[in-house]
Design goal:
The protein is an alpha/beta fold. The termini are far apart. Helix 2 links the parallel strand 2 and strand 3. The strands form two sheets. Strands 3-2-1-4-7-8-9 form a seven-stranded parallel beta sheet, with helices on both faces. A two-stranded antiparallel sheet has the order 5-6. It is globular and about 50 Å long. The chain is built from seven helices and nine strands. The chain is 38% helix and 16% strand. Bound molecules: NADPH dihydro-nicotinamide-adenine-dinucleotide phosphate (NDP). The site of NADPH dihydro-nicotinamide-adenine-dinucleotide phosphate has 29 residues, from helix 1 and helix 4. It comes from Methylocystis echinoides. This is Oxidoreductase.
Length: 229
């Protein structure tokens, strides 16, 4: 049994990660924001019994993230920084809602690092600790296309942050990877996405289960295939 921390678990991929991990008998700490829908997450955590726990924080709020971290006194083995947003309507290079995109950058690029920094003491005590930042192929510098520039830029920034954290934690033997979950039918991915959430999460968990320090600084999809930065 390992202890997993899933940040951003109220819906979509984070909720399904929590559900599958609880069913598999892991210890699961799952976070959601104040005011988010609680029922589905409680149901997903139920099979974990006393090994399940809820934390409440918005990843943009450093003091809330740090306060939540003080509630976790035992080691954490895996952090999945999953919380993410798609952002405002106007986010192209020709017409941008700048405050809206600044907020998106806060959530998608800085949020995962805030969570990783806050829980680093617990991760350092974990068995085979691993950090996974939920990125997107849309953050790849190699990918063409211009739609949703704000989202792309936020995930590109997250990718750079993942690389730097990977380099900083390599001497401690803690791998850090950026992950693309596939195009998944969630509120964010929409109904036309190619993958069901169960299939995506099944793949994500296989990849994370196999991660070692040799994988640090990789940008991987849910099948374990490398993506061009
Ligand atoms: P959803 O929109 O279904 O869920 C997003 C989750 O993130 C919710 O739990 C939401 O909480 C939480 N969240 C958003 N902003 C914050 C915040 N500031 N603080 C805390 N929690 C927050 O998205 P998905 O499940 O589809 O996506 C999960 C991750 O995967 C994201 O990082 C996304 O960018 C990435 N991804 C998804 C793809 C897809 O096709 N679905 C493709 C590529 C990447 P709340 O309920 O409170 O809003």
């Amino acid at each position: 049994m390992s202890h997993w921390l899933i940040a951003g678990a109220s819906r979509g991929i984070g909720l399904e990660l929590t559900r599958q991990l609880a069913l598999r008998g892991e210890q699961v700490t799952a976070s959601l924001r104040a005011g988010s829908r609680l029922e589905a997450l409680e149901a997903a955590l139920a099979p974990a019994g006393s090994r399940g726990r809820l934390l409440e924080f918005d990843t943009r709020d450093e003091s809330a993230v740090r306060a939540a971290a003080t509630q976790v006194t035992e080691p954490v083995d895996v952090l999945v920084a999953n919380a993410g947003a798609y952002g405002p309507q106007r986010q192209s290079s020709l017409d941008m809602d700048f405050p809206g995109v600044l907020d998106l950058l806060d959530t998608n690029a800085l949020g995962p690092l805030r969570v990783a920094q806050a829980f680093l003491p617990q991760l350092r005590q974990g068995q085979k600790p691993r950090i996974v930042f939920m990125s997107s192929v849309l953050g790849s510098m190699a990918l063409e296309g211009t739609f949703n520039l704000g989202y792309r830029a936020s995930k590109a920034a997250l990718n750079k942050i993942a690389q730097c954290l990977a380099d900083d934690l390599k001497p401690e033997g803690i791998p850090v990877v950026a992950m693309h979950p596939g195009w998944v039918r969630t509120d964010m991915g929409g109904p036309n996405a190619t993958l069901g959430v169960e299939e995506s999460v099944d793949g994500i968990l296989r990849v994370i289960d196999g991660l070692t320090v040799a994988d640090t600084r990789r940008y991987l999809d849910y099948r374990g295939q490398d993506i061009d930065w």
